[in-house]
Structures are given as C-alpha cells and as structure tokens.
Specification:
There is one protein chain. By secondary structure, the protein is of the alpha/beta class. The protein has a single domain, classed as Rossmann fold, CATH 3.40.50. The protein has five helices and six strands. A six-stranded mixed beta sheet has the order 3-2-4-1-5-6, with helices on both faces. A hairpin with a 5-residue loop joins β5 and β6. α1 packs across α5. The two termini are 27 Å apart.
C-alpha cells in the first residue's frame, strides 16, 4: 500500500452573493452530496487516518457530514480555503503514516490543479465529487479514481 490523498470538493452551496463567501452554507442538495460521499467511501472500505478541511462553512459542513460515515473528525486547515497547492498537499499527506489515507475537503480550482500537478491528469472535480491520488516518494502520483456525485450516490445506495 502507498500514501493516498482523497480530495472531496464541498457540496452544492448557496449562490455567490447570498452571504459573505466564507459563510456560504450547503444547500439541501449539498448536504445530501456530502452524506453520500461519506457513505460511498465507507462502503468502498476506505479507512481514513486523518481528515483536513477548509474553514469555509460549506467545506466544514461537507467534512462533518462525510466524516461521520468514516469515523474520523476533520481538522480545519486554513490553506485549504484558497491557494492550496501541490507542496501543501504533500505536507498534509506526510502528516499521516507511509501507508495512510488522508482526506482533504476544499475547493476548486485548487483541487483540480493539485491533481494535475501531481498526476498530469486534467480533471473536472464536480461539487460533492471525489478524486484520489496515490503518491510516490518523488512528489508525484497516480490518479486512482475520479467519482462524480451521482456515482457516489449510487455506491452509497447499493445494498
């Protein structure tokens, strides 16, 4: 096994202008996306050693809902609020053990750029979607999976 980063984009949120950006809340759809993401990852047998979240309300709430199913509590990490990059991703990945899985909850365009910088893959990470990257020792990685919210919902709903 190798170190893995699991990146969960916050669920659907109130529109821009509804309130200050840092305070925008999840919509009912966003809450359902976050819960489904956690349930799906748990159904896939994902064991998360550490979880970090942006301090923005929509990400914090996504993390709380998703982490409930995973049996872990997310710690706020201010760089996830914006400007999160490859170097910071490695710093958080290294906070776990050599074979640990670390969950990050945050925002676009940072997450898609981090996936690209680590793997060379161009992804479109939807709200409530998940990307997973296996990291090697050279500060690069391999895209393991990219799951859209509807795929996560199907996994979560499977018997």
């Amino acid at each position: 096994m190798a170190r893995q980063l699991w990146l969960l984009r916050h669920g659907d949120a109130e529109p821009h202008g509804a309130r200050p950006d840092d305070e925008r809340r999840l919509t009912p759809r966003g809450e359902a996306q976050a819960s489904a993401a956690g349930a799906a990852l748990a159904a896939l047998g994902l064991e998360v050693a550490l979880a970090f979240t942006s301090p923005k309300v929509r990400a914090r709430d996504t993390a709380a809902l998703a982490c409930r199913a995973l049996g872990v509590e997310a710690v706020e990490h201010p760089p996830l609020a914006g400007g999160f990059d490859r170097a910071e991703a490695f710093t958080l990945a290294e906070a776990g053990g050599a074979d640990d899985r670390v969950l990050l909850v945050g925002h676009e365009p940072d997450f898609s750029q981090v996936v690209h910088d680590l793997t060379g893959a161009r992804v479109d990470l939807k709200k409530g979607g998940v990307a997973a990257v296996r990291l090697d020792g050279t500060h690069s990685g391999e895209l393991l999976v990219l799951l859209r919210p509807r795929e996560l919902e199907a996994i979560a709903a499977a018997p």
